[in-house]
């Protein structure tokens, strides 16, 4: 790969991301880059998705050599670029791990390599940061934790309405992946409880993708949505549920929370629980029914807590930008 020599432009700092966002409903990394790149451009930055121009700051978003996001360049490419252009700052967003994939063993080593290659790593949860420290990541490497968040212009509570306690209360979840680790065992169980009357006057909606072998009885199924269409569908509901296991942080439940929906999550949700303990209910595989019924009984309190939640995409992008500027300009 040919790299031009380092030379800061006169048109503001140039930032390069190693993935270019896809249009349509994709995973959290795709949404993050879309949101943060737009934010940076609105603050005078020049954003590109390659290393063939002079670059001030490089963001490693996907550490994998082969993945759905098809990284425009690899961590090794970044290392080579840094040797030729030592003034470039390498930022790294760590948002993945093998634990959430169950059978995967290749993600952790690649993230550890990216952490050690970069000047600074942002982890999307304390849980994920501690996870990699247990995997041998040096504790003195520069970095911090910044939670995920959805675009505040899109995911907000303006269209959501509180449950009137007369009609059915509506639960919702959404996942781009159909991996069972996303919590489909729990969603399937809730579907059965609704069908047999154990969860009376309750509805469940699953948006996105789901395992084909599930024989849903009562659940409303909606194909994958993105942006305002997704926010509009989420806002039709009252409680967001996620049973996803060992998530580094997750974006899905935060989009629901930002729409004003209190959240119920699995105790093995990884980074998800850091947020939900402040504004929702944490359950395990044995007490799901009990916890959901309790949340429904106390809905007004949980709705209030959801509306009081202040972290959104604006605050997330601001934190990322300040960390980036502190490192490059400090």
Q: How would you describe the shape?
A: elongated
Count of individual beta strands:
12
Q: What is the residue-averaged pLDDT?
A: 92
Q: What series of H and E elements makes up the topology? A: EHEEHEHEHEEHEEHEHEHEHHH
Helix content: 25-40%
Distance between the termini: 30 Å
Give the neighbour order of strands across the main sheet. 2-1-3-4-5-6
Low-confidence stretches: 1-10
Instruction: Kindly estimate the percentage of residues that lie in beta strands according to DSSP.
Output: 15-25%
Which descriptors would you attach to this protein?
about 325 residues, alpha/beta, six-stranded parallel β-sheet, 11 helices, about 35% helix, elongated, disordered N terminus
Report on the architecture of this protein:
Strand 11 (263-266), helix 8 (272-279) and strand 12 form a beta-alpha-beta unit. The radius of gyration is 21 Å and the shape is elongated. Mean pLDDT is 92; it is low at 1-10. It has a six-stranded parallel beta sheet, sandwiched between helices. Helix 1 crosses helix 11 (313-329). It is α/β, with parallel strands linked by helices and 330 residues long. The chain is built from eleven helices and twelve strands. It has helices spanning 28-42, 75-84, 107-117, 126-134, 184-196, 227-234, 252-258, 272-279, 288-297, 299-308, 313-329; strands at 14-17, 46-48, 57-60, 89-94, 120-123, 143-145, 169-175, 202-208, 220-223, 239-242, 263-266, 280-283. It is 36% helix and 16% strand.
Can I get a quick summary?
The chain is of the alpha/beta class. It is built from eleven helices and twelve strands. Residues 1-10 have low confidence and may be disordered.
